Amino acid sequence: MSETLPSEAQPAPPTAAEPGRDDRNISGVPIRLDGVTKRYPGQDVPAVDDVTLEIAAGETVMFVGPSGCGKTTLLKMINRLIEPTGGRIHLGDEDVTDQDPDRLRRRIGYVIQAGGLFPHMTVATNIGLVPKMLKWDDARVAARVDELLDLVGLDPDQYRDRYPRELSGGQQQRVGVARALAADPPVLLMDEPFGAVDPITRQRLQDELIRIQEELGKTIVFVTHDFDEAVKLGDRIVVFDVGARVVQYDTPERILADPAEEYVADFVGAGATLKQLTLTRVGDVDLLQPTTATVGSDAAAAVAAAQAAGDDYVVVLDRRGRPISWPTLAELTRSPTIPDTVDERLPVVGMRSTLNDALDTMLAASQGGVVVTGRRESLAGVMAVETVMAAIQRTRSGAAG
Ligand SMILES: Nc1ncnc2c1ncn2[C@@H]1O[C@H](COP(=O)(O)OP(=O)(O)O)[C@@H](O)[C@H]1O
Ligand SMILES: [Mg+2]
Fold this sequence. Notes:
Layout: E1 31-38, E2 48-55, E3 60-64, H1 71-78, E4 86-91, E5 94-95, H2 101-105, E6 108-112, H3 123-127, H4 129-133, H5 138-151, H6 156-159, H7 169-181, E7 187-191, H8 199-216, E8 219-223, H9 227-233, E9 236-241, E10 245-250, H10 252-257, H11 262-268, H12 272-275, E11 292-294, H13 299-309, E12 315-317, E13 323-325, H14 329-332, E14 348-350, H15 355-365, E15 369-373, E16 379-384, H16 385-400
Parallel strand pairs: 3-8, 3-9, 6-7, 7-8, 11-12, 14-15
Antiparallel strand pairs: 1-2, 1-4, 4-5, 9-10, 12-13, 15-16
Bound molecules: adenosine-5'-diphosphate and magnesium ion.
């Protein structure tokens, strides 16, 4: 017997026009919260007070709001790590409010900060936990573990037998995502999963999640305190106030353009124009095509090609087409061949990064541009800070007009 819920053949009827989203693969199911309430023992006011909310199949919905407003409590009621004191919860067509929590949790992946991995178990054992509980045979579990490591961008041969302490924070988080996806649950709950990693790693993890979600189409509920993260990852955002009161539930575009209350406007913050940069992906803008040169090739030829193209730098590619440095022409004239030195500070973003991420990366590296990579980290182009400036100009004149 399959433990997964029947997936919806069709996404729930959209509440508004959603351009270009109907061709997506969807394996998630809708979640319906109906008057859900949690009153902790001894509390005068409920932590979550009568929340009614529908989350469409295959959407990523972001929960934002001040600390203590009830986001985690609400999230944990969906997989019943916390028992509601009132209301009903539906997954798909099924009322799961009274369902056995262990059974329920096999159909709901859960990712928390720092991965929540068991330290005494290898990566493979951590990821295979739920499949093992579902009594998959060893070969099937092993194959699934490798498939998931691949999916989250970790080489199975290198990582399956490691222990969590032998991984970086970002890698632990990837394993946490892999573990949550192990039994292919239709629903994924994520509670500030990327809160504990550095900003560049966080960008990468976000980009990976976007890619995975494009592939899988789960229903994802994601708690964050970072509004930029909500705008970047969310199909919709729920802005909560105390007691998990829903102040606004809308697309990032509409929340930025038209915050429902002063409270939301404050939350969005003063840099609303800059936040528009979070709505645009690097893959959506025209990239510059720089002069390139492969490691070991003739440096003088590369300099000549760059001069002919009017470039004052060259992007150096390794033998697999991946950018490793971008020396100026003056630097290149120092050696007869293109050096294989890897510039550890080379600012690189992916196609799914936002213009905001790109700007952050430029600022962190004190550079006026970023190198953009596509499939298998191969060069896709270069984006200059001017492109970001032009995008700001456009949203400004758009807002004025
Ligand atoms: N186990 C608990 N017992 C009593 N009160 C709790 C418990 N967990 C959370 N709370 C309270 O419930 C409210 C909501 O908490 P929480 O859901 O963690 O908020 P958030 O995730 O938005 O920061 C807070 O006032 C918090 O202090
Ligand atoms: Mg919380």
